[in-house]
Design goal:
Layout lengths: L5 H4 L2 E6 L7 H14 L4 E5 L7 H5 L2 E15 L9 H5 L5 E4 L3 E4 L9 H5 L5 E16 L2 E8 L6 H9 L7 E5 L6 H7 L4 E6 L3 H16 L4 E8 L5 H8 L4 E6 L2 H8 L4 H4 L3 H16 L9
Parallel strand pairs: 1-8, 1-9, 2-7, 2-8, 9-10, 10-11
Antiparallel strand pairs: 3-6, 4-5, 6-7
Helix pairs in contact: 2-12, 6-7
């Protein structure tokens, strides 16, 4: 039906995002990864929702490797410090503050690891110190290559950890990135550089409001995108009317099926318990292939 090649599809990065939490973003991402794996194609699932990753609940990967992620923060040797205050002056985030009597305070969670304070210090009193912000776990879930980031509790370096997770995107596969909800900096970092974005929403007033925010973000980032409506049938047609007016393609309407909710609540993949939805996700995968091949992409930025 579509003119595509395996190489084309196997070099694609798809972000699954949403304007707010609870729309079914992870449901779409994990089931899409499973349907691609069933075709024998190489697929990678990367959970970039590092503050609360939950893709593992459904994919149940066998974790084979875990590694810590660190970022550099300043450490001041007060014996060398002359109290010039240059480090404090250059820091835009107040992560290093010069006080009286040659005393310097550092606030590691405010630091953006730019290294500016190290460069301007005239006495070489500041050295980089590694700060552990989280972990990245690697494993297998059937035919799916699984990667997830887990931010340490109390840490605020979400974009930094997401950036590290994305370094493990493999170039010869279909990579599916489960993006944090919302439209803030972590979403920008996760979606940056992808080939296509699915915005998952619900047909409710709240769903429409947050969808509009998400559409504004991906348009600002100049990313091609389409919409997926989850729990279709529970609300009204406002989301569909908005997409029609904005010339946004709706690639999937997943119905409000109690059985889907039951599968989700027990940590099961939809495709494993409701075989009739294999066709729905297979069609979604075909549309992905057509987008990559340059056929049938009706989305307008």
């Amino acid at each position: 039906m579509f003119n595509h090649t395996l190489a084309q599809v196997n070099e694609m990065k798809i972000a699954v995002a949403s304007g707010k939490g609870g729309t079914g973003k992870t449901t779409i991402a994990t089931n899409l990864a499973c349907i691609v794996a069933k075709t024998g194609r190489k697929v990678q699932y990367l959970d970039c929702d590092v503050e609360e990753p939950n893709g593992h609940i459904f994919l149940k990967p066998n974790i084979e490797k875990k590694q810590a992620v660190t970022v550099d923060v300043p450490e001041v040797d007060l014996k060398k410090c002359t109290g010039c205050g240059k480090c404090s002056d250059i820091c835009q985030y107040s992560a290093i503050v010069h006080l009286k009597e040659n005393n310097v305070l550092t606030f590691e969670q405010l630091c953006h690891s730019c290294g500016g304070c190290l460069r301007v210090c005239p006495t070489d009193a500041i050295k980089p110190k590694p700060l552990n912000i989280g972990d990245i776990e690697f494993g297998k879930a059937g035919g799916i290559d699984f990667v997830q980031g887990k931010l340490h509790i109390g840490n605020v370096r979400t974009p930094s950890l997401i950036k590290e997770v994305k370094k493990y995107i493999e170039g010869d596969c279909l990579a599916i990135l489960d993006v944090p909800p919302g439209t803030s900096c972590p979403v920008v970092e996760a979606a940056k550089g992808v080939d296509y974005v699915f915005l998952v929403t619900e047909p409710t007033p709240f769903g429409l409001n947050d969808l509009k925010l998400a559409v504004g973000l991906v348009r600002e980032m100049n990313l091609p995108f389409a919409v997926i409506i989850n729990r279709y049938g529970i609300g009204n047609e406002d989301v569909e009317e908005y997409c029609k007016a904005e010339n946004i393609e709706i690639m999937l309407k997943l119905p409000d099926d109690r059985r889907i909710a039951e599968a989700y609540s027990s940590g099961r993949i939809i495709l494993d318990v409701l075989s009739e939805y294999n066709e729905e996700f297979s069609e979604l995968y075909e549309k992905i292939k057509s987008v990559k091949a340059g056929i049938g992409d009706k989305t307008r930025l």
